[in-house]
Amino acid sequence: MTQKEKEQQEIDSELDKTTTSNDNVSKSHGEILKQQICEGQEVYKKSSVSILLSSFTAGLEIGFSYLLLATLLFFLQGKVAEDTAFKLLSLVYPMGFIMVIVGQSILFTEQTSLLTLPVLNKKQSLGNLLKLWGFVIVGNLLGGWAMAAILVWIGPKLHIFDAETVSKIAAHVTDYSFWVILVSAILAGWLMGLLSWVLSSSKDTISRIFIIYMITAVLSFAGLHHSIVGNVEVFAGLLVPASLSFGDYAQFQVVALLGNAIGGAVFVALLKYRAFVTNIKY
C-alpha cells in the first residue's frame, strides 16, 4: 500500500467514526463533511436523463425569481430612485432559490461544492465531475432560456413589466468588466457553496428556508453575479430588440459560470476538506 493510499484510508476511517448528532447538538465539521460527501455520491448515482430533467426543472423554477424581480422593478418605477429599487429587489430574489433547493431540483451553484467533495475524497474522478457539471449546466441553461422566453412574452401581456424593464435588468447585470464579473461570480459561488454546507446542519424546513433567504438576499443586495439567475436575466435582455448582442450574453455566461465554479469548488469544498484532513495529520 502506497503512502497516499494509507493517508486516504486514514481520512476515510476518521469520517466513518463521525456519528450523526442528536437534534439538540450542533453537527461537527466531520459530520457535515461526511453528509456532504454522501449526498454528492447520491447525485453521481443518478442517470444522465434524471440529472438533465432535474437541472432543467431548476432552470425553470429559478425563473420565478426573475419574474418577481422584473415585476417589482416595474412597480417601483417612478416611486423610488432606481438605485434604491435595485436594492429592494433583494427582498424577492430568494424566492426561486427556495423553490429549487427545498424542492430538491439540481442547481449548478448549490451543487458545485457538493459534487467536488467526492472527487477530493477519491470516490469520484475529475472526469466524472466535469461530465456531471456539464449535464447540470446544460439543463439549468435550457430551463432558463425557456423561462426567459415565456416571461418576456407574458410580462407585457399581463402589464406587470415591459421591455424597458427587461433591458434595465440585463444592463444592470452585464455593465461590468471581465475581471469584475469574474471576482463577483467567485464570491457568489463561495456564498452558494456555504449555503449548501450550512443547510447540511439544519433539518427542519423553516430553518432551511430562512438560511436560503438570508444568504441569497445578501448575494442580491451586494449585486454579486449568479450564473443561473443571470442566465435568465441576460438571455431575456437578448430577446428584447436592440438590447444586448449574443456576444455580450456568451461572455457574461462563460465568466459567471467559471467564477461560480471556482467559488464553490475552491473556497468551500477544497478549503473545508483540507481543514478536516490537516486536523487528522497534525
Automatic annotation (TrEMBL):
Domain of life: Bacteria
Keywords: Membrane, Transmembrane, Transmembrane helix
Bias-annotated ranges (Basic and acidic residues): 1-17
Keyword Transmembrane: yes
Main location: membrane
Keyword Manganese set for record: no
Topological relation to the membrane, as annotated: Multi-pass membrane protein
A GO term, aspect molecular function: formate transmembrane transporter activity
Gene3D superfamilies given in the database record: Glycerol uptake facilitator protein
Pfam families listed in its UniProt record: Form_Nir_trans
Protein name in UniProt: Formate transporter
